[in-house]
Write a structure and sequence with these properties.
799 residues; Alpha-Beta Plaits; Aminopeptidase; 14 helices; 24% helix; Peptidase_M14; protease
């Protein structure tokens, strides 16, 4: 493309986005709703319902501009012949504004009615499960058989619980010399029974079946003498599928607490040091009927701590030329508006604000509507009750939340390779905590009888944070399903009226320290507090991001991490951010480190595919900036560049192919549970795959080997040297004959999604080098900090 053509295209784009910027409020979810007439919204804390939509834009520059303007862009990006498909969270008003500017609507993926259907589905399952566990259950053993055949000796058990197949009520079998968790079996929605089929070394005399509800029974083991049953291969009894519905953070944390209590020898709970702000807000009301004549009143106390129910009443003072007065007691504030010579109300919004703050400032803070001058006259309203608008039931605490990690491992002393998994930085991603819970359940319940699980738990130190952002997630469940951020409001009084409540908060995955918007990187907002990617007032301003960093800093044995997000079916790693000008990215990994990211990814993605055949596309696998977009201040970059932790991002929920239309369709944040369930199971497979990678890393004691191509010799022209390594490894080299060390040049990547860059030699040189694998094994056991000379060397002569 010629420079003139490029300049022309960019000029058109600049013009397009300048037009958009003039109406920037239309690009902030909810912010344009009833902006000049709050009374039109009914003052019942209502606004336009958002939608999740797929749209088409012309190129990647347009995607970046959407992000810069604060549009809520989801983690899904697909190149097509017509442009780029992306998913947005928008209201109807915002969508109409974007369509006028050239954005083309392709599909509506998720609306408020879909959210209501998911909640109803979840509640039906919960109601049935709760009804089943009101009392101690009864355990009935259908059979307990032992047999021996040519393959070995085996124990087979069938048992039923009167509570049914409830994930929080697993059945456990114990016998002399062994224990195992039974698998639950439902068929066509009907509970059949639990079963166990495992190899044993000796015949048990009896077996005891217990449940978490307290049910227990002991029965003798019988000899099975009938027709031979084809046994499974030894160590292949593997229990999975411990989730039956979407879980809010309160349920999730109760679940991991009970798991740790059940397996004290293998797990413990770590309380992270920074409490969240809590699922709470100040109570509010809007008094008035127009932007210039309205007053926003906010309780000084949180709604749950006394703000809810506080009443403000606007009355007209009796008589002519009466003054503006405010009377306040503990639960009610009465404002008598001033009157003019005819006895009509004559107080402006600005005057009422000043009077409330002076006389009732211990109870409320008053502002004009969205920073308006407040010159309009305020009309009497009668008593208006303040409310925080939160709809969660009383069992959801409003207090600051104690975020926790479940730590799993036989040796939890820092001596084993550490792996951290963390979910739900973004509140609306309901599948992601299920991945965390399912994985924790599998590791603990399979330990007693599955050799592969025992190997991982014995040799790794595993940390799982099931919900990084519990406040936002509770809000997503009960108030506004498209909530992405936490609930902390940094907008200030002028932008804090109730109709903007769904826009408050900080995007936790834009609040970290590396490649942040504060350092000039793209993909977040530092100024628009209502943006879906608002990075907060400063780096690590939020307790949620502080907790993730604390865990990595405190447990220095952590070498691997997985950040579980949804949706889109991406699998990514650093770098995750670039500066828009010149697309200057964070430093790329070395060629060897990049090769390890790819090799480990293939292992993990194989495990995901194993469940139901889901394949993460090659084009959706790689560094964030190569396959998605710039995400300034994300957590994986923080972990990689500050602590050298190999960190990935799952985007669970790969697109599903529709054979009827021949197209791939997005699944959304909150698909029907049948789909979300499968996503959780397959990506739990992937998380176990990461543990396999970490296990191999921890056990690797074999140094890499490397060769040089072309070899040492004499050449008539310049040559391009390439190093070949026996495994992913970083190569350090010198060209002046000096001894190579860890400060020497490293082989870098040739370019985006390319392999190692060749080294051009156009004059005679002596090349000295060594390689180091990710586990720290140095080729030939060479000591770069010592005086040895057992490095590789080759002389290239150019005639």
């Amino acid at each position: 493309m010629s420079s003139d053509t490029t300049s022309s295209r960019r000029s058109r784009l600049t013009s397009w986005w300048l037009s958009a910027a003039l109406g920037a409020s239309l690009l902030w979810p909810g912010s344009a709703v009833h902006a000049d007439n709050p009374a039109a919204a009914g003052l019942a804390l209502t606004a336009e319902d958002p939608m999740l939509v797929t749209v088409l834009v012309q190129d990647r520059d347009a995607v970046d501009r959407l992000l810069e303007q604060g549009v809520d862009v989801e983690h899904r990006l697909k190149a097509t012949a017509a442009g780029y498909e992306i998913d947005l969270v928008v209201t109807p008003t915002e969508l109409a504004a974007l369509e006028k500017r050239g954005v083309r609507l392709l599909h509506k993926l998720f609306t408020k009615s879909d959210w209501e259907a998911r909640i109803a589905e979840r509640n039906r399952v919960l109601q049935a499960e709760n009804a089943a566990i009101l009392s101690v259950d009864e355990i009935t053993v259908l059979r307990a058989d032992f047999f021996t055949n040519a393959s070995g000796s085996f124990l087979y058990v069938e048992a039923k619980s009167s509570a049914g197949n409830v994930p929080t009520n697993p059945l456990k079998a114990t016998w002399a010399g062994g224990e195992a968790t039974l698998s639950g079996w439902n068929d066509s929605g009907q509970y059949m029974y639990h079963y166990l089929f495992v190899p044993v070394t000796e015949r048990p005399g009896e077996i005891t079946i217990t449940s978490a509800l307290g049910g227990t029974t002991t029965v003798p083991v019988n000899d099975w003498v009938g027709e031979d049953i084809k046994p499974p291969k030894p160590d292949k009894h593997y229990v999975s599928d411990f989730i039956t519905h979407y879980m809010n953070p309160t349920e999730v944390y109760d679940r991991i607490e009970s798991l740790a209590a059940e397996y004290p020898g293998l797990a413990e709970i770590i309380e992270l040091p920074n409490l969240t702000n809590g699922y709470r807000r100040h109570a509010q009301a809007v008094l008035g009927n127009g932007a210039s004549s309205s007053v926003v009143v906010t309780s000084t106390a949180y709604g749950s701590e006394g703000g809810n129910g506080l009443a403000v009443e606007l009355l007209v003072s009796a008589g002519a030329d009466a003054p503006l007065t405010v009377k306040a007691d503990s639960r009610k504030i009465t404002v008598h508006l001033a009157t003019d010579a005819s006895g009509a109300a004559s107080s402006t919004a600005a005057q009422v604000v000043a009077a409330l703050n002076e006389k009732a400032g211990h109870l409320v803070a008053a502002t004009t509507y969205r920073g308006n001058a407040g010159a309009g006259l305020v009309a009497p309203t009668g008593a208006v009750t303040l409310s925080d608008g939160l709809k969660a039931p009383s069992n959801i605490s409003r207090d600051p939340f104690q975020v926790r990690a479940i730590r799993i491992g036989k040796h939890r002393d820092g001596s084993k390779t550490g792996v951290m998994a963390y979910s739900q930085e973004h509140a609306r991603e309901w599948v992601t905590p299920l991945v965390a819970v399912e994985t924790a359940e599998r590791l603990l319940r399979n330990y007693g009888h599955d050799g592969e699980t025992k190997k991982l738990v014995d040799n790794l130190d595993i940390f799982i944070i099931p919900s990084v952002n519990p406040d936002g997630a509770h809000y997503s469940f009960f108030d506004y399903n498209m909530q992405r951020k936490n609930m902390t409001n940094h907008c200030g009084p002028a932008a804090s009226d109730p109709l903007l409540r769904n826009n408050w908060g900080v995007d936790i995955n834009r609040n970290y320290r590396v490649g942040s918007v504060f350092d000039g990187y793209a993909g977040a907002s530092a100024t628009n507090c209502q943006s879906g990617t608002y990075a907060g007032p400063e780096e690590l301003s939020e307790p949620e991001s502080q907790n993730v960093v604390w865990l990595a800093d405190h447990f220095t044995n952590i070498k691997f991490a997985m950040n579980v997000h949804s949706y889109g079916g991406f699998f990514m790693w650093p770098p995750g951010a670039y500066k828009a000008s010149g697309r200057q990215s964070l430093p790329r990994p070395t060629a060897g480190e990049e090769a390890f990211f790819w090799a480990a990814s293939e292992r993990i993605l194989d495990e995901i595919k194993e469940h139901r055949g889901t394949v993460i596309f090659p084009g959706y696998t790689g560094p964030v900036i190569d396959v998605l977009y710039s995400a300034a201040g994300n957590s994986a970059d923080d972990l990689w560049y500050n602590r050298g932790i190999y960190g990935w991002d799952f985007e669970v929920g790969a697109d599903l192919y529709d054979p009827a239309t021949g197209t791939w369709r997005a699944v959304g944040f909150q698909p029907p549970f049948a789909e979300g369930h499968q996503e959780a199971l397959e990506f739990s497979n992937g998380l176990i795959g990461l543990l396999d990678v970490a296990y191999a890393y921890g056990k690797d004691r074999q140094p890499p080997k490397s060769t040089l191509a072309p070899e040492a010799g004499t050449y008539t022209d310049a040559v391009d040297l390439q190093f070949e390594t026996s495994e992913p490894a970083t190569v350090y080299y010198t060209l002046d004959g000096s001894r190579p060390t860890f400060t020497s040049e490293k082989v870098k990547l040739a370019g985006t999604r390319e392999g190692a860059a060749p080294i051009r030699i156009d004059r005679s040189a002596t090349v000295n080098w060594f390689s180091v694998d990710p586990s720290g094994n140095v080729e030939g056991n060479y000591n770069p900090s010592g005086n040895g000379k057992n490095y590789n060397t080759a002389t290239i002569t150019i005639q």
